[in-house]
Design a protein that fits this description.
The chain is mainly beta and 133 residues long. The protein has one domain: Bacteriophage SPP1 head-tail adaptor protein (Thrombin, subunit H, Beta Barrel), CATH 2.40.10.270. Helix content is 12%, strand content 57%. Strands 1-2-3-6-5-4 form a 6-stranded antiparallel beta barrel. Strand 2 and strand 3 form a beta hairpin. The longest helix is centred in the first third of the chain and has 6 residues.
């Protein structure tokens, strides 16, 4: 089955040629702030080429503003520091691409460690635009 056919039938896109998005993988670290309460800090773990497939988008009007959510699948090469069986990727990792932050909902290993698939959620709202007006 060709790579194009695999994409159309929803099979994992493991071909490296489809990984054309340079994505930053960030890791979360917790430390105590000056007040003694935990502070979460996001730092760059590394960058990786990934393929991107927008799965679902939703837009709602609530609390006098429009908010949108986009669910996206990402595929990348396997690495121990993003292995969902080793690291709790939902709470310890996130993706940043093209200025947008993608929170990881789930992670799964593709095949026999041929790659890693992330399902992410990116949210946006127009409240910033209203503040500037």
């Amino acid at each position: 089955m060709s790579v194009a056919q695999q994409v159309l039938v929803g099979k994992p896109r493991t071909a490296s040629g489809l990984r054309d998005k340079l994505v930053t993988i960030e890791q979360m670290t917790k430390s105590k702030g000056a007040s003694g309460f935990p502070v979460e800090t996001w730092t760059t773990l590394r960058t990786a080429y990934m393929s991107k497939l927008d799965v679902r988008a939703d837009e709602r009007f609530t609390a006098n503003q429009t908010s949108a959510a986009i669910e996206t699948q990402w595929h990348t090469d396997y690495a121990t520091d993003i292995d969902p069986d080793v690291v709790n990727v939902q709470t310890k990792r996130r993706l940043v691409w093209s200025g947008r932050t993608y929170d990881i909902l789930s992670g799964a290993i593709i095949g026999n460690k041929q790659g890693v698939e992330f399902v992410t959620l990116a949210k946006s709202d127009d409240s910033d635009e209203e503040d500037e007006a």
